[in-house]
Write a structure and sequence with these properties.
The complex is a heterodimer of chains A (185) and B (473). With 185 residues, chain A is mainly α. Chain A has helices spanning 12-20, 24-31, 35-46, 49-66, 76-95, 122-129, 135-145, 151-158, 162-184. The termini of chain B are far apart. With 473 residues, chain B is mainly beta. In chain B, the strands form seven sheets. In chain B, strands 7, 8, 9, 10, 11, 12, 13 and 14 form an eight-stranded mixed sheet that branches. A five-stranded antiparallel sheet of chain B has the order 1-6-4-3-33, with no helix packed on it. In chain B, strands 19, 20, 21, 22 and 23 form a five-stranded antiparallel sheet that branches. Classes of the chains: A mainly alpha (185), B mainly beta (473).
Chain lengths: 185, 473
């Protein structure tokens, strides 16, 4: 897993400079090693492959378009991460109007429902419960638990104290726990 | 007493996030990205390359300090000039058709943030009239008189157009341009509700989304939600009399999505209507009064916007259906557009209609000719409720916009892939949309007569177009 605070490899500032000046080959060289991380992050946030592809593509094209406005080369990865999460959020906005209807308890005429922890894969249930969270809660959990961003790094990028990040992460986890209860009920 | 949820451990969340992340991207994704980048021009800032270096900024700062010292020295002892007059931001006038509320009831405490929790670093700014900075986009020109009204965002400008050249009605700053969106236009055409999102600088997070009311004649704009960090309002829609605005609201505090309500005639206090423990998927205003229908998980609730009371609640006793669109076909009947997930895959899920009236849910009725669910895209309903437009696949898997007659179930293709921002005429006989099909050099505003399928080009949308709301005569 490449962290969001990935150290820019030797020679990358020159690549960013070239891409900023309109060199598409340089931009491709920048994006290629990051594409898997970007896609996996997007997929964890939006929850499906098709939307993750769209979000990743939108983010990369937006990054290409606005790269000339990036002044601090050291912030490239953090900036690209922000662009990606924004794209995921926009994708989720489009998604929100098309969702599968939840089935109220008692309307399954096919027979008794399986219940209990043995009936469902716990990890699958938690993964599914992400869909009940807002975009920011998803992003916070994904950055922390998938990309292993340190709290201090998240705090720095948010411009808020570490304690606030902890509180928000706690709130997101609580929301996930409540969502999981909803998945299991 | 509510049971406490079981706590989750780090390893489970990590494994769940990894499972959601799935595998790596395929090679085609990078190819697609570079193909798009090859046709996308870069946007350059105002600073020349020389000024991009840190040394140059140090020199520039020193020069500015020196200049400031000179100005202070020269100006010492002179009277302070009077402040420039504040821009005349016209107050928003409520729609004349709306009557004063008798006794509005606040059903739920407002989720509005206190001013101290305002979006950092400051709320987005919307300027109108002489206070607007120079335009950052070009006007579009609409041919003929078929368009009743269009309000759209291009770059950092908001434009309004009926026929001929568009007029710039507002300009915004302090927001990421990709987070600006025109959500709806009031029934009388006098106001647009615009959603402006703000991101925290150098952060991967969008901080908040707030709603603004913008006069379509360019005479004023005002923000009418005051949401703070991690509070988001989106997808705002006017009631049919223009008195209320309903919108989606969500935050970082574990709430399931809820509907927010603002009474533009009353005290403007945001209220929220919660679905309970389940998610809310869609909402739609009634055609004749201030009732709001909401699909809440497995229920269809109708709420009075004036009182906040639930007027009716109907259980949707079906499963395996994918929700697509909610519409009112008349004052007593609602239509649900769903797709039957037959297990083969959502792209093979046939679209069907159900009606809900007096608490009775009809059996599903297949749409003909058969079209299938196309994924996470939006639908829209004609003002008279006689037709619903959805995005779906035809039998040969071609994606496009289809208009469905809600009484007969007949489906008709009106627009191909790459089309967006579809709006209706008031009589439901024509649709207008932005056609961004791959064969075009620039997206075109296009009108289609639903009765015979005739297409009428209305003009090209401008560069940096970011979406809008259009409706035909």
């Amino acid at each position: 897993v490449v962290t969001g605070a990935a150290v820019i490899a030797h020679g990358e500032p020159a690549l960013i400079e070239r891409a900023r000046a309109g060199d598409r080959d340089a931009f491709e060289a920048l994006i290629a090693p990051r594409i898997d991380t970007l896609f996996r992050t997007a997929r964890a946030i939006v929850g499906n492959e098709a939307d993750a592809r769209d979000a990743t593509q939108d983010a990369c094209v937006s990054a290409w378009k606005h790269l000339p406005r990036l002044r601090d080369l050291d912030k490239f990865d953090a900036w690209l991460g922000r662009v990606l999460v924004n794209s995921c959020r926009m994708q989720l906005r489009r998604q929100r109007r098309v969702r599968e209807i939840a089935i109220p308890a008692g309307f399954d005429s096919a027979g008794p429902r399986e219940t209990g922890p043995e009936a469902v894969d716990g990890i699958d249930a938690v993964a599914s419960a992400f869909d009940r969270l807002g975009a920011d809660a998803r992003a916070l959990l994904v950055l922390h638990h998938l990309r292993h961003e340190p709290l201090a790094g998240i705090a720095a990028s948010l411009g808020i104290p570490v304690g606030t990040v902890k509180w928000r992460l706690h709130a997101a986890r609580r929301a996930l726990e409540r969502a999981l209860e909803g998945e299991r009920s | 007493m509510t049971a406490q949820p079981r706590p989750l451990d780090d390893a489970t969340i990590e494994a769940a996030a990894a499972r959601r992340a799935g595998g790596d991207a395929d090679a085609a994704l990078l190819t697609d990205i570079m193909a798009a980048a090859r046709t996308t021009p870069q946007v350059h800032g105002w600073w020349p390359p020389l000024v991009r270096s840190r040394q140059a900024w140090v020199v520039l700062a020193a020069a500015l300090l020196l200049a400031a010292a000179v100005v202070v020295g020269v100006g010492a002892g002179r009277p302070t000039p009077p402040p420039a007059p504040a821009p005349s931001a016209a107050a928003i006038v409520v729609p004349p058709s709306a009557s004063a509320p008798s006794s509005p009831v606040v059903s739920t405490p407002s989720p509005a943030a206190s001013p101290v929790a305002m979006c950092p670093p400051a709320p987005a700014q919307v300027a109108t009239g002489p206070a607007m900075p120079p335009a950052t986009s070009e006007p579009m020109t609409v041919l003929g008189d078929s368009l009743d009204l269009g309000v759209f965002v291009a770059s950092a400008d908001i434009w309004s157009v009926r026929t001929g050249a568009a007029s710039r009605i507002a300009s915004f700053a302090g927001t990421d341009l990709s987070l600006a969106q025109v959500d709806d236009v009031s029934p009388d055409g006098r106001f647009a509700v615009v959603e402006l999102g703000q991101a925290i600088p150098n952060s991967p997070f969008i901080a908040c989304d707030n709603l603004y009311l913008v006069a379509t004649d360019g005479t004023g704009a005002t923000r009418f939600t005051t949401f703070g960090t991690h509070q988001h309002a989106s997808d705002a829609r006017f009631s049919r009399d223009g008195r209320f605005v309903a919108y989606r609201y969500d935050d970082l505090h574990g709430h399931t999505p809820v509907v927010g309500l603002i009474d533009l005639v009353g005290d403007h206090t945001p209220r929220i209507v919660e679905c309970g423990e389940t998610s809310m998927f869609d909402f739609a205003w009634a055609p004749d009064d201030d009732r709001l229908a909401m699909v809440c998980g497995g229920r269809l609730d109708v709420v009075s916007a004036q009182t906040g009371n639930v007027v009716s609640s109907t259980v949707l006793p079906f499963k395996g259906e994918i929700f697509m669109e909610l519409a009112w076909s008349d004052r007593a009947t609602m239509v649900l557009v769903t797709a039957l997930d037959n297990g083969i895959g959502v792209s093979n899920a046939p679209v069907q209609l159900r009606t809900v009236a007096a608490g009775v849910v009809s059996d599903p009725r297949p749409v003909s000719p058969q079209i299938t669910f196309a994924g996470a895209l939006e639908g829209t309903t004609a003002p008279d409720g006689a037709h619903v437009a959805v995005v779906a696949f035809s039998r040969d898997q071609t994606i496009g916009w289809y208009v469905i007659d809600t009484s007969t179930g007949l489906a008709q293709a009106v627009a191909g892939p790459g089309c967006s921002d579809l709006g209706w005429s008031s009589d439901g006989r024509s649709v207008v949309f932005v056609d961004g099909g791959p064969a075009r050099t620039a997206p075109a505003l296009t009108l289609v007569d639903v009765s015979n399928g005739a297409r009428h080009p209305l003009g090209w949308v401008p560069a940096y177009y970011r979406g809008g709301v259009f409706r035909a005569h």
